[in-house]
Amino acid sequence: MKSRSLVFGSIIVSFFLIFAGCGAQPGQESSSIQIKGSDTMVNLGQSWAEEFMNLHPDASIAVTGGGSGTGIASIINGTCDIAQCSRAMKPEELEAAKSKGRAVREVEVAIDALAVIVHPSNPVSQLTLEQLSGIFTGTITHWKEVGGEDRPILVLSRERNSGTHVYFLEHVLRHGNDKGPEEYSPKALMMPSSQAIVEEVSQSAAAIGYVGMGYVSAREKKIAVGTAAEGPFVLPSVDTALDKTYPIARALLMYVPENHSAVVDTFLNFVLSDQGQEIVQQMDFVPLYQAPLRKKA
Amino acid sequence: MKRQVESAIEKFILLNGVACIFFVVLIFLFLAREGLALFKTFSPLDFLAGTRWYPISTPPKYGILPLFLGSLIVTLGATVISVPLGMACAIFIGEIAPRWLREILKAGVELLAAIPSIVIGFIGMMTLAPWVKYLFHLPTGLTALSGAITLAFMAVPTIVSIMEDAITAVPKSYRAGSLALGATHWQTIYRVVLPAASSGIVAAVMLGIGRVIGETMAVMMITGNAAVIPTTILEPVRTMTATIAAEMGETVQGSEHYFALFAIGLVLFVISFLINMTAGAFLHRERK
C-alpha cells in the first residue's frame, strides 16, 4: 500500500514541477534578453544582438519575429523584455499594459521608408497617396485608371499582425486619420511575410504591394509617391526619408517595461550609439541621424 | 511485493488512460469557455452569418462566413481530387498489384504521409502556384484551387491506407465465389469487393476530409488569405485555420479578438467532431 501512494505522490509532484517550470517568467536572469515583434525589424534586431553579444560575451539575446502585434501582445502578457514595433502602441494597448502592472516606455531606434512596389514591366512609375488609397481600399481596381495597362490590379497586403499593415492602413488608406472609415479591400491578398510580397510582385505583372525599403531588389520596381497630383513624386531612399520629402516613412520603435533590467538598459544605449546606428544603415534602414557614417562595405 | 508492483503498474496505466480523456475534456472546456465569451459582446448571428472579417477595425467585425466558405471550397476541391485518386490507388494496391509492388507502393504512400505539411506547402507555393497562374491566365496563382491540390496530396495517404485496410479485410471467399460464378476480375472488384468494404471506404473518405479541414500551414502559404466570399475556385480564399494561425500571435489575452479566434476554433472543433463521429459510426458498422 505504502509504495503505491509513493508512486502516486511522486507523479503528482512531478506534474506540479512541470507546471511550475512553465510558469516562470523570461528575463529573470539578469544577462538574458527576449526580444519579440516586428518582422520588418527582426533582421535588424538580430544584427544588433549579435554585435552586442560580441561586446558583452556574458549577455544572451534571443530575437524572434511574428509581427508588431505579436510583440505588443507579448510585452503586455509579460513574455518578452523588449517589443520591437513598426507602429506605435495604441492607447488601449498602453492601458492594457499598465493595468497588468507592466507600464512600458517607447524608444525610437531607427526610421524605415515603406516602398510601394510593382512588377518591372508595369509602365506605371508614380502614384499619389490618393490613388494608393483607392487601389488598396478597392475603389480603383484597374491599372488603366491610373495610367497603366488594361489589366485588373492584384493588391497585396501584409497580414494583420504586421505593424506595416497597420501603418499603411492609417497613413495611406486613411490619409493619417487613424479612426477613418477606410479598410483594405476584402479582395486584398494577406501575405504572411514581406518576402512573400516581394516574391509575388516579381512574378505578377498585375501586382502591387508594400514592403520596407530593405526588401526591394532589382526584380521589383519602386513607385515614386506624391502627396498631390501635380507632384513632386519622390522615390524612397535614405536621403528622402531623412529630409522627410518621402511621405511614407515611419519610426521603428522599441518598447521596454519601466522596471527593466540593467542589461536591457545597456542594450538600448548600444542601439542608439553611433555603432548601433551604423548597423541600421548597413541593414538598409534609415538611421536616426546622419552621423559620420561609413559607406556600406 | 510482486503483487504490489503489479497493481502499481496497473494503476499507473489506468491513470494514463484517464488522463487522456481528462485532457480532452479540459481542452474542450477551455475552448468552449474562451470561444463562448465572445458572444457576451458580439451577436452569434453576426458571427456566423457576417460577411466581413475585420477584427482590428473600430468597431471590429467578426463575420466568419467568408472564412467558413473558404475552408469549405478548399476542402471540397481537395476531396474531389483526392477521393478518386486515393480510391484507385487503394484498389490497385489491395486487388491488382503483385505482392512485391504492393509492398513498395504501401511504403511510398506512407512516406507521403511523413512529409511535413509546411514542406508540401512550400513546394506548392514555389511550383504549383505559378503553374496555376499561367494555365488559367490569373493575376495570381495563390488560389483555392492551388490550396485544394496541395491538400489533396496530404489527404491521399490517409484515404489510401484506411481504404486499403478495408478492402483487404473483405474475406477471400467473397472473391472466390464471385469468380466461380463467372464474373471477371473487374466485375468482382466493383460488384463484390467494393460494396463489402463500403463502410470502411466511407470512413476513409471522412477521415481524409477531417485531415484536410484542419490543415493550416500549407493553406496559409498557398491560398492568398483574402477574406472574400469565393465565387469560383480560381479566387484567393482565407480559411478558418489560417485565420487562427495568422492572427493568434497578435491578440491580447482576454480581448474580444482573442475570444473570436477561439470561437472559430470551436466551430472547427464541432466540424471535426461531426466528421470523426460519422467516420467512427461507419467503421463500427463494418466491425459488426
Structure characterization notes:
The complex is a heterodimer of chains A (297) and B (288). Chain A has 297 residues and is of the alpha/beta class. Chain A folds into two domains: 28-111 and 251-282, Periplasmic binding protein-like II (D-Maltodextrin-Binding Protein, domain 2, 3-Layer(aba) Sandwich), CATH 3.40.190; 113-249, Periplasmic binding protein-like II (D-Maltodextrin-Binding Protein, domain 2, 3-Layer(aba) Sandwich). Helices cover 37% and strands 22% of the residues of chain A. Chain A is built from ten helices and twelve strands. Chain A has helices spanning 2-23, 42-55, 68-76, 91-99, 129-137, 163-173, 194-203, 238-242, 262-272, 274-282, and strands spanning 32-37, 60-66, 82-85, 104-118, 126-128, 154-158, 189-191, 207-212, 221-222, 224-226, 233-234, 249-257. In chain A, the strands form two sheets. In chain A, strands 1, 2, 3, 4, 6, 7, 8, 9 and 12 form a nine-stranded mixed sheet that branches. A three-stranded mixed sheet of chain A has the order 5-10-11. The radius of gyration of chain A is 23 Å and the shape is globular. The termini of chain A are far apart. The model of chain A is unreliable at 12-29 and 292-297 (pLDDT under 50). Chain B has 288 residues and is mostly helical. Chain B folds into two domains: 2-40; 48-287, MetI-like fold (Orthogonal Bundle). Chain B is built from twelve helices and two strands. Chain B has helices spanning 2-36, 44-49, 65-96, 99-114, 117-136, 144-168, 172-180, 185-196, 198-214, 217-222, 240-247, 256-287; strands at 53-54, 61-62. Chain B has a two-stranded antiparallel ribbon with strand order 1-2. In chain B, a hairpin with a 6-residue loop joins strand 1 and strand 2 (61-62). In chain B, helix 1 packs across helix 12 (256-287) and helix 11 packs across helix 12 (256-287). The longest helix of chain B has 35 residues, at 2-36. The two termini of chain B are 43 Å apart. The chains are: A alpha/beta (297), B mainly alpha (288). Chain A binds chain B through residues 1, 3-4, 7-8, 11, 66-70, 72-73, 76-77, 93, 96, 151-152, 154, 159-161, 166, 179, 183, 186-192, 196, 200, 203-204, 206-207, and chain B through 4-5, 7-8, 11-12, 15, 52-58, 66, 130, 133, 139-140, 142, 220-221, 224-228, 236, 238, 246-247, 249-253, 255.
